[in-house]
Structures are given as C-alpha cells and as structure tokens.
Design brief:
Helices cover 39% and strands 17% of the residues. The protein starts with a helix and ends with a strand. With 273 residues, the chain is an alpha/beta fold. It contains 7 helices and 9 strands. The chain has a 5-stranded mixed beta sheet, sandwiched between helices. It has a two-stranded antiparallel ribbon with strand order 3-6. The longest helix has 26 residues, at 2-27.
Length: 273
Amino acid sequence: MHLLIRRKAGLRWLALLFIGSCFACLFWPGQVSAATGTIADDAQVLNTAAIRQYTDPFSYTVDIFTTTIFKGSNSDFDASVKGLTSNTTGTGSGTYCDPTQQVGCELFSTQTVPGSTYPGGFNIPSTSFLVRNGDADQSVEIGVDVSTRHLAIYAGSGVTIPQSHYNNAIQVFAATMQRTHDNYTQATVDALNALQSASDRFWNGVRAGLPWIVLAVLIVGSLIVSLVMRANGLGGSSRSYGWRNSNTWSSGGNSGGNGNSGGGGGGGASGNF
C-alpha cells in the first residue's frame, strides 16, 4: 500500500513539474534578440530598408558601412573593419573619428571623465575619448569600399558563424555584382544569406514561433499527463485501488545535450569585387 501511495505522489509531482516547465518555457525567451544594427550608406549605393529585412533576423548585431573616402590600402581597410569587433576607441585626432582612416565612425561616441583636484593644488584635467557603442563581441561588421571595390566581413569573438561562410559570402558578393552590373543591394543581401545557412534561417524561424510551439506542447502534454494519471488510478473516484503487478518505476535519466561544442567564435574574410 505504501508503494502505491508513493507512486501516486510521484505522479502528481511529475504532472506539476511538467506543467510548470511548459509555462516557464512559454514565457522564457528562447533566444535573446540581437540589437538593431547600424547601416551607414555613405556611398549611397544601398536600399537600406530592403537590407534591414535580412539583417534584423540575425542572431547577432549586423553593421554595414559603405564609403568612398577611405584613405589607405585594402589591408588598412580590413584592419579598420576588424577593429570594430573588439576596439573600444576610434582612430582620429582627439575625440574626432576620422572617416578617412576609420570605418564605422557611427559606432563611436565621446565620453568624458571629469577632472579632479587634490590637496596641494594638484589638478587632473578632464579627459575625453572615443568609445565604441554596443557589444563588439556579438557583432558582424561589413565594410564596402566602393572606390577600390573591396569588401571586408569580420565578426566578434562571440559570433560562431563557420569560417567557410565568410569566404563564401565574399565570393557570392563578387559574383552578384558581376551578374547584376553592380547592384550593391542585391549583392549585400546575397552575402548576408551566404553568412547564414538554410538551417540557420530555419532555426531562427523556429525560435520566432517558439511561444506557439510551447503552447501546443503544453496542451498536448497536459492531456497525456491526464491520461497517464487516470491509467494509474489518480484521476478517478474509485476508492479501491488494489495491488498491481510488480511493475517498478525506473528513474532513467536524460543525458541529452544541446549539441553545442562551445568552439571559439570570431572569423572573417575580405576580397575585391
């Protein structure tokens, strides 16, 4: 009899745990939404609204910059774009970000540390410096130098896009530019699609519909739990339960993981088009 009572209590706790977990999943965000990225089309070659439809669903913040005034070699341009994924200060004179030397000046703002006065007349003047806004580790930076026809794509250390996707994005951008006779918007869209595989886009859609999926699981699961409880004599009003056959409950654990090996992030590529 004690065994039956313990089984009844265990099933009740199992049902409550299942329902509580479903409600927690329903209101717990499956994935933190990425911040809206910056698209600074200084070269005026992009349809910004069209491109945002492809950057906003990314799991990471995607910033895109076009320029015609950058001074320096292609390697300097690459270094400037890559610097946006980790640097905290911009390149320029004082608190001024120089767009001829630094890609993505729109990401920087000026911060001032107030000065201090110490006994004896010793003064420390206030200091102003440039600080990169946003989470650089979770960003994908795309720079397009229109004048030299050069493209650079780099990502922060928290971005886990495979390196092959960056290489492919550079090739796809160049191919689309040739095929469309310099349609920068379409080339950028194709490059963004190359960065995200079809499976990535599928799972992003799944995450977007996660609340409805969990709600369906909650309803179906509640029905299943109710049937299980009734089958074990917990849902009826019968006063006589009797002894059942010697079925024993095993507590087999679920050791499944999320499949994420935790590999290092970052990466990038560049090339001419």
